[in-house]
Design goal:
homodimer, alpha/beta, TIM Barrel, 2 domains, eight-stranded parallel β-barrel, two-stranded antiparallel sheet
Chain lengths: 418, 418
Amino acid sequence: MTAAAEGEPKDARAIRKLVAEGLAVVLTSSVAPPERPCAVGAGLRTKVNANIGTSLDYADPERELAKLRAAEDAGADAVMDLSTGGDIADIRRRIIEHARVPVGSVPIYSAAADARDGRRRVVDMTADEIIDAVRRHMADGISFVTVHCGVTRDVVRSLRSSGRVCGIVSRGGTFVERWMAHNDQENPLYERFDELIDMAHEHDVTLSLGDGLRPGCLADSMDRPQVHELMVLGELCERATAAGVQVIIEGPGHVPIDQIEAQIKMQKEVCGGAPFYVLGPIVTDVAPGYDHITSAIGGAIAAASGADFLCYVTPAEHLSLPDEEQVRRGVMAARIAAHAGDIGKGIPGAADWDRRFSALRRQRDWEGQLAHCLDPELARKVREHGWPGDDEVCSMCGEYCVFKLADETVEEPGRTAQ
Amino acid sequence: MTAAAEGEPKDARAIRKLVAEGLAVVLTSSVAPPERPCAVGAGLRTKVNANIGTSLDYADPERELAKLRAAEDAGADAVMDLSTGGDIADIRRRIIEHARVPVGSVPIYSAAADARDGRRRVVDMTADEIIDAVRRHMADGISFVTVHCGVTRDVVRSLRSSGRVCGIVSRGGTFVERWMAHNDQENPLYERFDELIDMAHEHDVTLSLGDGLRPGCLADSMDRPQVHELMVLGELCERATAAGVQVIIEGPGHVPIDQIEAQIKMQKEVCGGAPFYVLGPIVTDVAPGYDHITSAIGGAIAAASGADFLCYVTPAEHLSLPDEEQVRRGVMAARIAAHAGDIGKGIPGAADWDRRFSALRRQRDWEGQLAHCLDPELARKVREHGWPGDDEVCSMCGEYCVFKLADETVEEPGRTAQ
């Protein structure tokens, strides 16, 4: 708790109180406590998660460890291992072993992979296998698990009648929906939620209630299936909190800019103020290749409106599995969104960074600026790319630098702009 | 007017009415009418401007023409030539000659450059030289001019008592303020505003009333000097509109995310609904190298709140003069902001692009997506970078593609996820 309070505007005692009230969580694990546990919730700095993990086509564990390092070096507060390809149990354990930040995961991917390894289909998983995967992840030292408990048969009926453009876009949500349709059974993650509560309690793990029916395009945002699932999550959230288990709620996704604030307010209201973990949201569907930007726009507004945890989106989203550089760019864009949001919602201290930095800018203290900006390495590269060799100015304005002009006494000809 | 109405939700007649009421402008010039005149204002698509131009250290005209092409190819609706280095009259004329979109400029840079060529200082310009520069730009075929008319002696007194962190960050504003201090005279662009009205009328040019005292950091946003200058601009705007001259108002700058909507509403109120042209705004000061993203966040919120015209910010901002690639990236980020804002403010037709595009995504029509997205070239590159060679899916989810899973009938073993 003390480690989680580092850099926060609240102390360990205040955070403990928030956790008890269900208004914040500390992402950690009793099995493998991370070096940097991370507090997420009301009045705390907005945190950034980076998704890494293999896919069926790219399953090199070393590459994922490189992405882990890229994410941590860029300043991610947590990572999620979403591996679906290769020996995913081994990859998960290696990521937990090497990570300094809390590691989250989506256990149903393991159950699907195990079925696949046994030459069975996703729909052939047993309910026990789905539940056991959650237990195995927790036993390995995962700090938070995404469980798609809200994709119930009732919610899926809402979906069937909704006329969605994109249907379900969550992989876990799709697995659950396909499984229910094939087996004509209720979602075990819903029916056996008490088991999830017990195991989360045992391992001190946070349940991240997944939004299997999050909108996959602007047109589907805030429709009945999305709201219906959120209402189910709100009830489950209440049960988990009452049992002393930490819980966060996952949210969209693709949202028109004018609906973001309403989405956040709705979630906070329906889920008793539980921390809200959003994916993006991206504010237009049409810009693949730029979804770190479309999501930075939505994430900043979400954070300013009260979202607590931003899942980054990389420039590779919708197109390919990200590489290290795309991971780095995704984290940086999400950190910008989180920080802009923190200024907007008045997190104590957030605006101080900008004020101190702007004073360095005013003083034309270039070394100071390069040392204290978001990404010193990139900023130095961009400056040097067009550097006129003058320590005082940059190549954009040169001698017409407004700060230089302001510093000159107009009556001293030798020091004025010529 | 007909050309300007192309792609707009309003026809030429409706736009003419908006222009007559001062609620919109058509950026054009009777001297050199651009191939693609551009309508800016209420109920119209949010437009994007790209600043190009030499600096004292980089004054190659060919490079500026390459940046013009990069801006136009990326989809900029207008460009401004902000050249301050080299033979800037020649560069301006070449940009006007080659541009298909309207070209704007800041005439006082010419007056400053002329003084410099004559080995005089900025403060040694005469009032006539400042005014004549505006006339010369219009005679060359410029479609809109930034004139810093609101930096009056009275407004500068507000500044002196304000305790700003960054003072004045507009180059034109700095020139005017330094000139007034040195010469102990009122701003000629304010005192002789009627002459500007007359010459704008003669050449059918739009006056863009510059915000010389725009905030240069979050801490200075919406302070008394900024609001004071805006009030002066509001009065001048009214005079120009009454005289049948098109006028737009320039705005910030650096603005905390929670003040952006208020800034837009204030401007619209104080300036009788005149089109608002914002630079960014950027929502944090601390991310040099990423100001295309910080400004996309602010620009999207500004556009959704009613801003009509976004001046792009490139990743080079605050660090160096942008090159072609940085121009391209700046335009793309600003176009994302403009489009997201248009969806937010309900511009008819804006959301249709996203809906059509999302239908292609749902159908896994990759060629369709790559043809109809914001930046087809980049999207194709990112997809092919990690392409598993399967036409149906991408390397992120592979066989676990949610749309592929949804399309499969779970009862047909041969076609389901294995």
